[in-house]
Design a protein that fits this description.
mainly beta, 13-stranded antiparallel beta sheet, 8% helix
Length: 729
């Protein structure tokens, strides 16, 4: 059976996937507010919840709570809440059914009441709707906003975010598509529609986005701002297309549960307000997954970066669920107006956690894993002089999954790239709760996450006697003469046994891109690396004891030991040894410093590269020129192969830091579209070129995945990055 599971929050299922155009509305301004006592996300920042912090306490299973939120200028007396909105008590609330043209078609059976705080509660006589055809409309003065009744957490916010979702998705469906969604929600047979719970998740997760609405914005202005936020608009489009997935093309994973080692890297560009002398400065950042010690005792326990896929049986419905938890280190480089540079590392940034709330996913034709993903908030520095809350926006997951190794064995890999913005927020204790105060940072992160199947008893000898192609991308932050250095390279590993470890004989070619202390951009030359490295298994300390589960150490000469810090980094392998990935952490070899980043290797075989096929492209590029920094996220692009040519078409999300103006613009949309010359260099090595644009790297032996270094020059801006191109059904 196939299903996209949602939050087990109504009836027995929850969707925890990880959460009218007028100008000024004069009639609303003088009305009083009155929601004291209601749970307000602004004064209750909680880790382990998403930014929306919904409240369904005191509700029956068929009831929803309705809260209206408006820009500050339209409700100056309203209670302040997050995203610079204000909570108001609506003058009227009504419920009606609608079609794709947003026409009123009558009303479902419902009743209303007020809870003890005077908040409207709606009870649906036939249960809370699942389809996007029931609208809750709230009016305050002349302001009229809508939300979908399907919202999964049953704490329904009626605000510009919900209005954007209603007016920018339903009219985009064709009549037949909209009917398919309604039929899916109404399906009650044993062949339950796989995407029955996508819309409740989507209606809920738009409220997890941390996008501030200006105080003086009209409703039309707020909606325009959301439309211009390319990451928000892109998420809504992708998630709204997700319920249209063909039911017959999907299935659940074959294993009852599959555990993965996650190798995670995030490249970020944002703006800091943390230090008064640097406020408004832009900053680069890099995040790298690492294990976390969770106990100070001699019997130390660890949390390892990982993802879990599970096949669950709910009411005889077989569903796929996933959840992830990735502790990560963070380093940043502040680029101040006037070209001053400041680094911040572990002395500033405590180990943090990237964690997605458990939720449903769809396995599309055994090739793509699709889901709408909400992220939990986290807190660092609790009970210290600076307590910081971290909150992240949802994203749409489109991951490539490898083949299973047999019955009851999950896919050996799940590979994904995605974009998620967020904030760091100063927290202050108020009445025993942590309340949100000023924003300390805005962050825009492009992430690559390689989830490689764990297997207890992994034998590192499976790597020996094999040759591998490799690519890597690394950054170096400094306050010296070269504050920013980007190094990327590719090459060949030969792995051979040597006692209790594996020797690597390698040839690498790399290039560098630098920004010096004056702010000037310098394109470095190419270099080579031929020194030998070693691989050793890195045991994991589990409840059942220390086990080899596919985690690996990468060192130069001497093994770091089971729990030591390797010279180069920590990584993992799939069980058959055909793909490995490593987080490079302060990596230094005998040939010089490499930095912090990601290294990917895959088995090299003497077979021709594919000459046809469609591949999903995901990844990032860092762009620098005088006075400007840019983060480019390739947002679900497509690479089409045709003989000796290839076409690359991708939407992009662009974050730009203007150094002279001390300004970082929110993500805007762009387009990368070009025809490339495609060259098979033998043994899996490939290149794509078109003028100044080049993609260089390798394709895996089964021809389903490309890993490519991105290099481009656009109007004097130098761009370097790392891409994955993975097979589409």
């Amino acid at each position: 059976m196939r299903l996209t599971l949602g939050l087990l929050l109504f009836s027995a299922l929850t969707l925890t996937a990880g959460c009218s155009g007028d100008s000024a509305i004069d009639g609303a301004k003088g009305q009083p507010n009155s929601f004291a006592g209601e749970k307000n996300p602004a004064n209750d920042f909680t880790p382990g919840s998403t930014g929306d912090s919904g409240d369904n306490s005191g509700l029956a299973a068929n009831e929803v709570r309705v809260t209206m939120e408006l820009p500050g200028g339209l409700a100056p007396d309203g209670e302040p809440t997050r995203r610079n909105l204000r909570i108001v008590k609506p003058d009227t609330v009504r419920v009606y059914q609608t079609n794709r043209n947003l026409q009123v078609l009558g009303a479902p059976e419902y009743t209303t009441r007020e809870d003890s705080n005077g908040v409207t509660v709606i009870a649906f006589e036939n249960g809370q709707p699942l389809a996007p055809d029931v609208v809750i409309e709230a009016q305050y003065g002349n302001a009229v906003l809508r939300a979908l009744a399907a919202d999964a957490d049953r704490d329904i916010k009626v605000n510009p975010f919900s209005e954007y979702l209603v007016r920018n998705t339903l009219p985009q469906y064709s009549a037949s598509e909209f009917q398919r969604i309604l039929d899916c929600a109404d399906e009650t047979s044993d062949s339950l529609c796989i995407n029955k719970y996508v819309w409740p998740a989507l209606a809920d997760q738009v409220h997890d986005f941390e996008i501030d609405i200006p105080t003086g914005a009209s409703i039309a202005g707020a909606l325009d701002l959301l439309a211009q936020r390319a990451d928000f608009a892109s998420y809504v489009v992708s998630a709204a297309n997700y319920p249209l997935l063909d039911n017959q093309s999907s299935d659940s994973i074959s294993a009852s549960s599959a555990e993965y080692n996650s190798v995670f890297m995030g490249i970020e560009l944002g703006q800091t307000f943390l230090e008064s002398s640097l406020t408004g400065s832009g900053q680069w950042g890099i995040r790298m997954g690492r294990e976390e010690s969770t106990s100070p005792s001699t019997e130390t326990a660890y949390t390892y970066p990982g993802l879990t896929l599970a096949s669950l049986d709910v009411f005889d419905i077989n569903v796929t669920s996933l959840a992830s938890q990735i502790p990560y280190d963070r380093k940043t480089l502040i680029h101040k107006q006037g070209n001053e540079f400041f680094t911040r590392g572990t002395d500033t940034w405590a180990l943090n956690t990237h964690s997605t709330s458990p939720g449903g996913a769809t396995l599309d034709r055994d090739t793509r894993l699709l889901a709408v993903r909400a992220l939990y908030q986290s807190i660092t520095g609790r009970n210290s002089s600076r307590t910081i809350g971290w909150t992240r926006n949802p994203y749409f997951l489109d991951a490539y999954v490898g083949e299973t190794g047999g019955d009851n064995i999950g896919p050996d890999r799940a590979l994904a790239g995605y974009f998620s913005a967020g904030k760091a927020i100063q927290l202050e204790s108020e009445n025993g709760k942590l309340a949100r105060k000023e924003t300390l940072e805005t962050q825009y992160v492009s992430a690559l996450q390689l989830n490689l199947l764990r297997r207890e008893g992994f034998d590192a000898n499976t790597l020996n006697g094999r040759d591998y192609n490799l690519v890597y991308f690394a950054t170096r932050f400094s306050e010296s003469t070269t504050p920013l250095q980007v190094e990327s390279g590719n090459g060949l590993w030969q792995v051979r046994a040597n006692g209790d470890h594996s020797d690597i004989t390698q040839t690498q070619t790399y290039s560098t891109l630098n920004r010096d202390s004056s702010g000037a951009v310098l394109v470095g030359g190419t270099g080579s690396r031929s020194d030998n490295w070693i691989i050793t298994p890195r045991p994991a300390r589990l409840s059942t004891g220390d086990k080899n589960i596919g985690r690996l150490n990468l060192d130069v000469n001497n093994p770091a030991g089971a729990f030591g810090q390797p010279d180069l980094g920590v990584g993992a392998s799939v069980p058959d040894g055909s793909l490995m990935a490593f987080n490079l952490v302060n990596a230094a070899s005998s040939s010089g410093i490499i930095g912090d980043g990601l290294l990917i290797v895959a088995e090299r075989r003497p077979a021709p590269a594919p000459q046809s096929g469609r591949y999903r492209v995901q990844g990032f590029a860092m762009g620098i020129e005088d006075g400007l920094n840019r983060l480019i996220h390739l947002n679900d692009g497509t690479l089409n192969l045709s003989g000796s040519t290839a076409s690359l078409n991708s939407n992009t999300l662009n974050v730009v830091h203007s150094v002279d103006n001390a300004a970082v613009a929110a993500p805007s949309s762009g387009q990368l579209s070009t025809t490339l010359e495609y060259t098979d260099k033998g043994d899996g090595e490939v290149s794509f070129t078109a003028g100044d644009l080049s993609l260089t790297g390798f394709v895996t032996a089964d021809q389903t995945q490309f890993f490519l270094l991105f290099r481009n020059t656009v109007n004097g801006e130098e761009q370097r990055g790392l891409l994955m191109a993975t097979k589409l059904p």
